[in-house]
Amino acid sequence: MESIGAEGRDAMRGLLGAVNESLGAPMAPAWEAALREVPRHTFLPEKVWVGEDLVECSRDAAPEGWLRLAYADTAVVTQVNDGQATAEAGERWASCSASAPSIVFRMLDMLDVRPGHRVLEIGTGTGWNAGLLAHRLGPGLVTTIEVDPVLAARAAGCLERVGLDAEVVQGDGAGGHAGSAPYDRVVATCSVRAVPPAWIAQTAPGGVVLVAWESPWFCFGLLRLTVDGCGGASGFFSPHSAFMLMRGQRVDLRIYRDVVRDSHRPVESTTRLSPWAVAGDDWAAQFAVGLQLPHVWRTWHDEPEVAGVASRLWLATTEADSWAAVDWDGAASDRFTVWDARSTGRAVANARTSSATPRPPPPPAASGGRRGPSCDGR
Questions:
Q1: Which is the catalytic residue, given 3, 22, 97, 99?
Q2: In terms of DSSP H, where are the helices of 85-124?
């Protein structure tokens, strides 16, 4: 196995401390051994991207910086544009990443694997998570499926080089992998807006399905389900992390391209309900709105070049057949202008007032993205 040297060993010790601090307790000895013996850097590609602007970091050009990223408790983007990289930095979007180690080990702890368990992982990515599971469980018990053939081949190569036995399957993870079922545990490292029925069907009674959750409104949370053996499953959400959406569930919508039309004549009204009360920093409220309105998404548009408007909150359905906008003039804190084409705005207001008490708006934060208002699941 490739040596990481003294600097790498120091970085790994620092990572262990950071993960334990994030978890609030020391990780289980078996997982600590996996962290030490399955080095994260051996699964990262030679080129990664960092920061909101997805700045490229090459191992050849900046080996020390690349190694620091490998052992930082942060997510590292390992693929952009589904592998179709562009030279224009502003046109890059993340399509695969190595998750922050603290959320990796939090999910592994929540998965509660036991000796002899068979595990299916959805979303191989770099292969590191599958490697940790294979180290813990041993050969022949871990199956991981990846939709991207290039990523699948690379992950299989990484696992082979470090001597870990996990079956890598290239295919659509939404269908699971019946060939190795039933599984005692299923874990998805991509988020979903609906749990594919195959994951439940391929899990043994009493088994656990752990998935990252997303609604079009808000990408956040983990869902842990216990399979009942009668075709169903039940469980709970926990407030941790956000993952890239499963490719098969992506929705590529743009406000001006797909939703708003010159022929639309929205109804104008006013409201005292702050747009930040439904789409601000209250993550619990946003999560609740997302559950109640599973087909509504939103995006901020700061300084939209509209007279008298400092910030605009756009709301629309995923079917692109209904939209609303809420404008803030930059001064008033108790009066906002609403433009409502059909009923989206009223539905969001009703969902928010049923989940939490509105609060005064904080100062607006920059948002909306470099590519303009969109809902693309990336």
A1: 99
A2: 101-111
Q: Would strands 253-254 and 374-375 be described as parallel, antiparallel, or unpaired?
A: antiparallel
**Strand locations in 193-249, DSSP E?**
203-214, 219-227, 233-238
- The per-residue pLDDT for 198 is 97
**For residue 141, with 0-12 CB atoms within 10 Å meaning exposed, 13-18 middle and 19 or more buried, which class applies?**
buried
274 is catalytic: no
Q: How distant, in Å, are the alpha carbons of 97, 276, 344, 360 from that of 272?
A: 40, 11, 17, 10
- Least confident piece of the model among 127-131, 327-331, 372-376: 372-376
Measured in degrees and rounded to the nearest 5, phi and psi for residue 186 equal -125, 130
Domains of the chain and any CATH numbers: 5-247 (3.40.50.150), 253-375 (no CATH)
- 74: nearest Cα among 104, 96, 45, 53: 104
The pair of structure tokens assigned to 342 is 């059909």
In angstroms, rounded to a whole number, what is the distance separating the alpha carbons of residues 339 and 204? 50
Q: Is the peptide bond before 182 cis (omega within 30 degrees of 0)?
A: yes
Would you call 302 exposed, middle or buried from its count of C-beta atoms within 10 A (0-12, 13-18, 19+)?
middle
Tokens of 81: 């544009």
- Specify the higher pLDDT residue, 257 or 182: 182
Q: Of 197, 202, 196, nearest to 178 (Cα)?
A: 202
- Those residues whose C-beta lies under 8 Å from the C-beta of residue 40, and which sit 6 or more positions away, are 15, 70, 71, 98, 101, 128
Summarised one tens digit per residue, pLDDT across range 255-308 is 777 788 878 888 999 999 999 988 988 888 888 888 888 889 899 999 888 899
- CA pair distance 188, 172, nearest whole angstrom: 12
Indicate the angle between helix axes 29-37 and 128-137, nearest 10 degrees.
Answer: 130
- Determine the Cα–Cα distance for residues 161 and 86; give it in Å rounded to an integer: 30
Note the pTM of the prediction, 2 decimals: 0.81
Q: How far is CA 6 from CA 3, 11, 178, in A?
A: 9, 9, 44
% of the chain with per-residue pLDDT over 90: 56
